[in-house]
Amino acid sequence: MKTPILKKRKSKSKPKSRSYSPPKNKKSGNYAKVKKGGGRGKAAGGGMTAKGVKAYNKKTGGNLKTAVTTPPSKLKKGSKAAKRRKSFCARSKSWNSERGKAARRKWNC
């Protein structure tokens, strides 16, 4: 008796989502470097560079902005930058990872 040849089933692929997420590879050049360089977490400097933000916006059609790195004493009270900084600092209060702490330092929180 011959054994029947089984055909492989084609697995149904998941439909592609329409939203975009940046590549997971942190070495792609879109993240800030610090003295020790090359890595994740606090070594990556806590955010994207201006070049990375520009590339991301071009690819996604987004309106992402870079961090407000101006010291709070130099910002005018109630200006757009001051409001963005204040909002970010309030949102990120609970960030306890090394990368989160690096981002908060960058934003002068």
Our estimate of the beta-strand percent is under 5%
Task: Output the radius of gyration.
Answer: 21 Å
Morphology: elongated
- What is the first-to-last residue Cα distance? 76 Å
**Series of H and E elements:** HHH
Question: Largest sheet, if any?
Answer: none
Number of helices, counting only DSSP H or I runs of 4 residues or more: 3
Extended strand count:
0
Helix content: 25-40%
Kindly name the structural category.
mainly alpha
- Any idea how many domains? 1
**Which spans of ≥5 residues are poorly predicted at pLDDT below 50?**
34-40
Please, what is the average pLDDT? Answer: 77
Verbal overview:
It is a single chain. Helices cover 29% and strands 0% of the residues. By secondary structure, it is mostly helical. The protein has one domain. The longest helix has 12 residues, at 80-91. Residues 34-40 have low confidence and may be disordered.
